[in-house]
Structures are given as C-alpha cells and as structure tokens.
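> @MW can you paste both from yesterday?
MW: sure, first one:
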Amino acid sequence: MTFKDLHYQTAPLLLCNVWDVASAQLAEQLGFKAIGTSSAAIAASQGFADGEQMPFDSLYSIVKQIRQHSTLPFTVDIESGYSREANS
C-alpha cells in the first residue's frame, strides 16, 4: 500500500515519528503502517538545534539510511526546505 493509499482508509493513519534506523525499525516492529521523520529529533540526536541548524547533507544521509533499512512508507520533515528562495 502506498503512502497516499494509507490516507484513504476507514481507520485513522497513525504515524510514528522517527529519528534514526533503530527508531524506524522499532516503529515497524510495533505495527505502524507509516513513519515520519522529526526534524527536531534528528537534529538533537546529531547535536544540533532544530531550525535548519544541521547541514542538509547530514539530514539527507540519515533519511537515506532509514529508507535502506525500513520498508514502511514515510514522510520527511525538512522544515522550510533548507532554502529562503522559492526557485532554489
């Protein structure tokens, strides 16, 4: 089932917020159907404050690791998109 399909069910879609591979795998073991990253949790786990203080490449690397180790559909919190310009 795709992430979009999960929004069209009779039961509510509950997302588990994750910040690394271990938390994503735990969400999967607990029976969640989808996950979402938490920008604050990822930043804090890497020693950064929330609010795009962590380099985008670091965020991207963590998201790729989660994708490689979890089969759940997921959404990524990228705050304001790491850009101040609409065309970037």
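MW: second:
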Amino acid sequence: MKHGKRFFLVVISILGVMLFSCNDKEMSYETYVAKELASGERNDSLIYGIHFGMTEEEFKSYCTGMNLQKRFMPNPRGSAVRLALQKGFGAPVVFDFFPVLHSDKPITKVTASMKYRDFSYYDKTYDIGNLVIEAEKYFEDGYGGNKFIAIPHENILLKHMYVKIDGNRKILLKPTFEGQELQIEFEDLDVDLE
C-alpha cells in the first residue's frame, strides 16, 4: 500500500513538472513576441523588394516588372511567384511565395514554401533537416537581427517549428510531414486585421 502511494506521488510530481515545462515554453514564446513588439522596431522588408504595406495592385505590378526581367517566374500551377535560389544552399532550391490578400487591405502576411529542386528521398543531401539549417542561415544572414528559436510543431508527429521575430516581423519555418517541403510564413505582428 505504501509503495502504491509513493508511486502515485511520483507520477503526480512528474506530470506536474511536465505541465509546468509546457506552460513555461509557451510563456517564453509569448514573452518573446511581447518583447519584440514593445521594442517599437519596424521591419517591413520581405523578399526581393516585396514588403509589408504593399497593396495588391502594387504587388502585382512589381511582380510583373520582375517577371519581365526574368527574376520572378510563376510556379508550375500559376498560383505563386517562384524564385530559384542557389547561393547559401548545398543544392539548388525553389522558393514559392504569395501574399495573403484581404480585400483592399495592404499585405500583412506572405506564405511561402521552399524545397530542393532535385529532391530525392534516397539522397541525404536533400534531408529536411539540412534544408531547415540552410534556410535559418539564409534568413539570419539576409535579415540580421535575432536568431531562430525552436518552438513545438503544430503537428504532434513532428518535433519543432522555428521562429525568428525582429520587431513586428515574424518568420516561421514549418517542416512538413512529407519531409521534402519547408513551409514559411512572414507575418506582421503589429497589425489589426479587423
């Protein structure tokens, strides 16, 4: 009977520590966001001249000009802008992006994806872990500021997502379950969409 009570207390203690740890991680992310927003720093620069605050018309006009220069191309489905990236990556990467548009409001969020152009499950060069490391370095070198930190992934089958917040600009890297694509979100945390 004494061993049963002792076992029960140990289990309750472990569960308490685990629950406290989970809440502590969430609080540290919330604290991170609050600290960056409190800094008052504005970072609107996104991708190759795209920035928060652009209107849909400005975005389309800018992309048309970049397409005429052969710097931007449409992705195969015609649903996003595609860039070919080589510098900073161990193998060529394709980067697709498009803003989330809200009627006549300026751009406050851009969704993107990145994957190795010649991806193969049989070649470790194309492992999603390598892509995450290279993407983190690419964005940290390109934007400066804070480093990426690991946060729990939305999908419980995957371990981490990676976030970098500099003032109002959040960059979130989300590995996918398929293991070949890295989903990316650029979001202005200092806006009200209502």
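> thanks! Residues 12 and 18 are 10 Å apart (CA to CA).
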